[in-house]
Amino acid sequence: MIKEIFETLNRQGKKALVPYVTAGDPNIEKTYEIIDFFSENGADLIELGVPFSDPLADGPVIQRAMERAIRSGTNLPKIFDLVREFRKKNSTPIILMGYMNPFYSYGFEKMLDEAKMSGVDGILCVDLPFEEAKEFSGFVRKRGLDFIFLVSPLSNENRIRGIMRHATGFLYFVSVTGVTGEKENLPEDIKKVLVSLKSISRMPVALGFGISGASTIDQFWEYVDGFVVGSALIRRLEDVLFDTNSPIFRDFFFELHSACHKMKA
After folding, report:
1. Could you tell me the pLDDT band of residue 223, with boundaries at 50, 70 and 90?
2. How far from 19 is each of 81, 137, 232, CA to CA, in Å?
3. Can you spell out the DSSP letters for 174-212?
4. What is residue 243's three-state secondary structure?
5. What's the alpha-carbon Rg for the chain, to the nearest Å?
6. How far apart are CA 240 and CA 234, in angstroms?
7. Helix or strand or coil: residue 43?
8. Does the pLDDT value for residue 136 go beyond 50?
9. How far apart are CA 29 and CA 7, in angstroms?
């Protein structure tokens, strides 16, 4: 389903908007409200973060989100209940994004079974290197889920081809080495890396880490198939105390949506 969404958008000359939110931030009920808003207002995919106490790939905004979610008592069973509730009225694909520690502690295959039954469409293990992914990717494919992998500007051709042996759905290209968080400017030289990546892989590529707004989407629009936006959205939600009716949050989301879905000549 994820691949088909990218294919449809490509035919339409549009890019995928992939908003991220941490499940349980600030509580499960509010998370439902947020992802329902995303779905109702044109998000193409949704990344749902699994809270973890040591999120090494995440910057301060998402770290705070993880801490709030943990304090609210969020765990995998509650996240699966959230997805089941979401599925009663929404079809937007959900990617469960998290670290191996909570997945493995829960039981990886048990986690996948419950993810599938709840309505999750894809899994992204942030800290799972492709060298250790063979067994896990077999488990994921067996359930008919997509397995999303990160690719960095430092990934060489051999590494990209190794990742492609396990990846399905799309490749998540990390714009900068380091942690998540808004960046005023992303380096222009990653455009060359993206051109090279697209020449090696026919899989859709989504750009994430550092997307600060519509201007970043405009800057890289022709080089990728979609954009993942997390910290910029969460920061605005923090600023308005998670009021999804606030123009500050809504207008920013609609700016992102317009930038992704406005067909370019």
Report:
1. very high
2. 20, 24, 10
3. ESSSS--S--S---TTHHHHHHHHHHH--S-EEEESS--
4. coil
5. 17
6. 10
7. coil
8. yes
9. 33
Which is the catalytic residue, given 47, 121, 146, 182? 47
Q: Thinking of the domain 2-259, which architecture would CATH place it in?
A: Alpha-Beta Barrel (3.20)
Res. 179: pLDDT tops 70? no
Assess whether 58 carries a catalytic annotation: yes
58, 121, 146, 225: the active-site residue = 58
The answer on pLDDT for 182 being more than 60 is no
3-state SS assignment for residue 107? coil
Residue 129: the pLDDT is 86
Catalytic annotation on 44? no
Instruction: Tell me: pLDDT of 224 over 90.
Output: yes
Tokens of 211: 């997307």
pLDDT of residue 88: 97
Q: Where do we find the tokens 């829960």? A: 106
pLDDT band at 56 (very low <50, low <70, confident <90, very high): confident
